[in-house]
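User
New here, help please:
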Amino acid sequence: MLVLIVESNEALGRIWQRHVERLGFRTLLATSQTEAINILREQDVAVIVLDLVLEDGSAFAIADFASYRRPDARVVFVTNTTFFSDGSIFRHIPNACAFLQSETPPQDLAAMVEHYATH
């Protein structure tokens, strides 16, 4: 199964990527909306780990495109803000399945990805 990680901070994205790969998943890392959309056009992605606040592009646009192009792909949002901490993200983004803080231990994030990729 393929996991797409969309994170502007490439170093953080690589950390998440290594932890997810340790669980046996193939991963791709995108640092912008353009890269993420191009991957979603070409690849059958099962789970998307998506930073809510991107330097280049919109997380909502990526999630919206994924709901159209890859309707079975689940989105795990991560953020370092308190925006949407009330859970309202689940009302706005139908393919959202989890909402975590960026400081979540990488092994916990990987476990969440594994859960949604296999269920």
